[in-house]
Write a structure and sequence with these properties.
Tetratricopeptide repeat-containing protein; 32 helices; TPR-like_helical_dom_sf; TPR repeat; Serine Threonine Protein Phosphatase 5, Tetratricopeptide repeat; TPR_rpt
Length: 559
Amino acid sequence: MRNYFLLFALFIIPQLLPAQVQQNNDYSGKSAYINGLEAFENEAYEEARELLLEAYRNLDQPPGVSYALADTYLSLNDLPNAAVYGKQAVEADPESKWYRLKLAEIYRSAGRNQATLEQLNTLLEYHPNDFEGLYMLADTYKDYGEFVRSNEILDRIIKLSGEDPQVLLMKFRNFESLAATDSAVVQLERIREADPDNLQMLNLLGQYYSRTGEKAEAKKVLKDALDRNARDPQSLITLSTIYLEEQQWDSAGTLLTNFISDTLIQPENKMEIARFFYSRVEQDPQNIQLRVEAERIFDTFTESEPEFGPAFTLSGEYYRQAGEPEIALEKLEQANKLLPGDDIAWRQRLQLLLSQQKYEETIEVGLKANEEVPEDAFIQFFIGSGYMLNDQNKKAEPWLEQAARAPARRPFKSVIYSTLGDVRANLENHEASDEAYELALRYDPDNDNAMNNYAYNLSVRGENLERAKELALKAIEVNPENSAYLDTVGWVYYKLGDYDRAQRFIKASIDTGEASAEVLEHMGDVNEKLGNMEEARDWWRQALEKDPDRTHLEPKING
């Protein structure tokens, strides 16, 4: 708190005594001083500086103005000038505690350790029992790593004013830095005795007992905190963390589920608990018991807060990550109804629909989302992707073009342009397709999907094959086990006439166990070029069995 009212009174009263010589200057200076203090309190520091400098010139450099200038320059982070005026104030009134405290603060901000300590020790010579001076000295020693000296000063404060919780807390921090665990706990227990209803201190003590392995004592303290306030989220989180560390999954789940089902608790506080538990599941996703408790928590949350949209968004995100897409879609649909402007819920729902190959529903939902959240690159991208995957490339192109114009981070921009390249390739607009792929790689040079698709399209057209080879080889450096990428490399070599390498890469693609009918057909084509007609027909036959629509292979098989 700034002490300008007192300083103003001390400074102004003497100036009201009769003095005719400087009457006009005094009046102007006082006015500038008052207005400067007002500007300072309004955080208009530049204005305050100019007004206070005017007062300083017209009022013959009084210490109150010097003090105010020092504080103003400190707020402007102009430490050299702050120190100049701070020293002037101290020299004019050496016994003023406020002047010395301000100068010490300036020196401390400038990292002048010794000068800070000198000012504080001098202040205490004039005012040996001053709480502010002692506390700042203890805090300064703490910052400089002199924890023992800091505690010595804090003990002086305790003798003077009793066991103040903030003083004890600083002692705790000092002992913690000294790795003096027992002494640190003593301070927390003293805080607990001095302020037994302080939940922050109880939580801190519980956390400290937990960190030092005294789980039983930690649970005792935290239960005490919950007895005082059964709805304190921090106490619940700390206690449930201990249960989780002890693998008492059901105890943690029950504790938090009961909290979330409480109708008197604000949904925002429940959200904090739900996010906490979600983060624990993310750390241990294979833990079935933990997932069971998480599902109980999220189901309870949405049941107890049926009108709270964020609960459904978070629940939908959890079930999506947990591999429960149908439940996730139900939760996200409700989130969209409750919070139609929530772009996160729309994006998650569209991504799920797309991954479930529900392309028509993706388009339908995406168009609704675009009405509620226009100009969203993700939503427009999902609509365009839905059209593309539903073989409606002409409708896909304008949506992807819109997505490319909307604000988005560079990696996602790259994904948009890569998909736009695919759409234009499907439309046989090859020049525009190549342009889109090049933009994708400009936004993200490591976009392996863009590299692969661009290379494959070039190879199919038999154009710029060296560029295609460069891109295809770089793609498998990024993702060496990708079946499609290996096939692309093989097909580029096929188009270059290097059939031996083509065969080896396409075989590697087949060996992944994920080869498509197209890859099998390519292996037949390579063997045909190598003169292995029986093997070629066998591969073509396998391709036709995998994809009966490849009827163009029948004459080759029977030829």
